[in-house]
Amino acid sequence: xxxxxxxxxxxxxxxxxxxxxxxxxxxxxxxxxxxxxxxxxxxxxxxxxxxxxxxxxxxxxxxxxxxxxxxxxxxxxxxxxxxxxxxxxxxxxxxxxxxxxxxxxxxxxxxxxxxxxxxxxxxxxxxxxxxxxxxxxxxxxxxxxxxxxxxxxxxxxxxxxxxxxxxxxxxxxxxxxxxx
Length: 180
Known about the structure:
This protein is an alpha+beta fold. The chain has 2 domains: about 20-115, no CATH class; about 120-180, no CATH class. It has helices spanning about 20-45, 65-85, 85-90, 95-115, 165-180, and strands at about 55, 60-65, 120, 135-140, 150, 160.
């Protein structure tokens, strides 16, 4: 069985029972959690194309809470549990370090599933109009009034679609999918 990293391991360069990387993630999670939890409480009530799964508590009924709300409650509970201790104490206690790891997982999952802002990402189901490869990358507006930009990531092409052309191409794809 592999030894857990901790204070007792003289060769470990971590902090308490956590590696340096985990400790940095913990500091990020503690800092980011209060910013994302208000968003999570609201985000579940915003209608989108994807239907959220509702949580059932019995066979006769269900609680009409979105998963984002439940994630916010979990994160808030974990933060409350950790707030009773100093950060250095939590990483040196083998039971509290598991709570820290759970907080990291919950915050990272929430950040990934329900982001507060749009990030650049690959465009799926659409090819570049110039090189006909699936290499388009979407760049959201950087400020109010800025336009969406879609660029081809192929170094040989580097074509750029403005927001109007991208909107038109997206509309065509949607209509083709409906016709099928």
